[in-house]
Design a protein that fits this description.
Blueprint (H helix, E strand, L loop, with lengths): L1 E5 L8 E5 L10 E5 L1 E3 L2 H8 L18 E6 L11 E5 L14 E4 L4 E3 L6 H4 L3 H14 L6 E5 L4 H12 L3 E6 L4 H6 L3 E4 L3 H11 L4 E6 L11 E9 L13 E4 L6 H12 L7 E6 L3 H10 L5 E5 L2
Parallel strand pairs: 9-10, 9-12, 10-11, 12-13, 13-14, 15-16
Antiparallel strand pairs: 1-2, 3-5, 3-7, 4-16, 5-6, 6-8
The structure holds NADP nicotinamide-adenine-dinucleotide phosphate (NAP).
Length: 310
Amino acid sequence: MRQLHATHYGPPRVLHVTETDPPEQKEGSVRVRMAAAAINPADIRIRQGALADRLPTLAFPFRLGFDIAGTLLDEAPGLPAASRVVGLLPWFARPGFGSNSEVIVVEPEWLAPLPDGIAWPLAGTLPLSALTAAQALDLTHIEADQTLLVSGASGAVGAFATQLALAKGANVIAVASTGDEEFVASLGATVVPRGDAEVVAAAVQRIAREGVDAVFDAAGIGSRLLCSVVDGGSFVAASAPAAPASERNVRVAGVQSHPDAERLAEIARLVGTGRLVSRVEQVFPLEDAVAAHERVERGGLRGKVVLTFG
Ligand SMILES: NC(=O)c1ccc[n+]([C@@H]2O[C@H](COP(=O)([O-])OP(=O)(O)OC[C@H]3O[C@@H](n4cnc5c(N)ncnc54)[C@H](OP(=O)(O)O)[C@@H]3O)[C@@H](O)[C@H]2O)c1
């Protein structure tokens, strides 16, 4: 069985495909034959060593990967063997044992059924990005007819947050990347072009004169977007360390994603019926993982870069 190992912190070339015996099933766990996993910003930052302070127990070589999309090899509660599944692997809870491997051993409660008809690369874009978006929206407390500002709406998490908030009946003002305004508008959001935080805040104020009820800052713009929120509103950052200090009784929080199979099943169902969309920028086989990480680092993505394990 092949897996992707990082032998050191550093540039993409620290990644190596290695051969090992397939893992055995452990009591209470199940095996998944992996088909696809997106490369997420956290994979890049972990590999670079940017999160080393948070990972004192991480041993080399280690395996990256938050997204699970593949075929169940063992029976799990409510999921027969051979089911197509997706799941979020809580990497920070077991650092180094990620999903970038042909076969992984995981907790069955992380897994949700994947409807037929969703291609594997697309499935690989769902777990981390969509669950983070859904869990960030919870923290915003946004309700129908309220207005949410989403930064980074051209990115995976921001695009999911935009769509899920619109599905709840909220109004969404979304900051789109240059050249991607049409896609973000097609989701149903009112688009604000990417620019300096002050320019974005001024554009938002022209649309929502009194301010927005909540901000989800998926782009990590930070405190300079706080002025867009009404007094007592909510501001949710893409991570706890990125959360700015509160002002004017604004509730400030940082999202920390966690597995939620029931919610992921609903997300996958919506993707299967076309009511929720996700984008794949490029697909790389596992043996081209170095090139895949290089592609992510070059930026300008309009969808996820996805590793496949077939
Ligand atoms: N806390 C958690 O559990 C968790 C989980 C998943 C993700 N995250 C975080 O959530 C964030 C988004 O993740 P993602 O997967 O959606 O990443 P992504 O697909 O790379 O999207 C990020 C988007 O933000 C845009 N952006 C960056 N700077 C911007 C700015 N100043 N103004 C407007 N847009 C800007 C980028 O646009 P360009 O292409 O134009 O640069 C890109 O479209 C990342 O910081 C990630 O680490 C957190």
